[in-house]
User: Fold this.
Amino acid sequence: MSEAQLDVFGDISGACEALADKDKALAHALGAIEKPYIRRRPGGFEALFRIIVEQQVSVASAQAIWARCLENVDPMHPRSALDQGEEGLRACGLTGAKARYVFGLARMVEEGGLDLENLPALDDAAASQVLQTIKGIGPWTAAIYLLFCEGRVDIWPPGDVALLGAYKAARLRGPKPTMQTLDGNAKKWAPYRGLAAHILWTYYAHIRGRTPI
Assistant:
């Protein structure tokens, strides 16, 4: 099965088997979870707004802040975020930096400087590059959007602490990897690096006794 033929929201059993053959840690994780939970979100402004909220905060904190954002930025549209202004966005619980990022994102979308509808026509590298032209969106945020909202298969989110924690737990033998070594080792999981990330996120929830969200 080629990457182009794989629908990450469909039958992924063959790709999971291929990943298990490549890495014993992934095989162990799959043995514990049976199959990965694949996150799926509608794309667009709301999705990028939410991912910015989720940057470098706990799941619980992100959920609480996002709930306040949904309550105050209503309807969830770039114009509503612009009407809130940076101060209004901060009142939702965003840091000053994140309020600036969301406000800048809203302005780009509203003024036509960012065409999110065209992203699916671009290859992985080009789509990531377009997203990273937005202040506050780096490689991790771009990868999360492309994984969750477009179902891309071979995107790896660098610097993800949950992925590192999961891989450390699943690696039963040998030295525990650092973030740098994990991000480097992920190259060997191509063309299914994104699916490997979903496996590890699901395993991370499993070892922490949580339901994947």
About this structure: The chain has two domains: 3-39+154-207, 45-148. The radius of gyration is 18 Å. Residues 45-148 form a domain with the Endonuclease III; domain 1 fold (CATH 1.10.340.30). DSSP finds eleven helices and no strands in the chain.
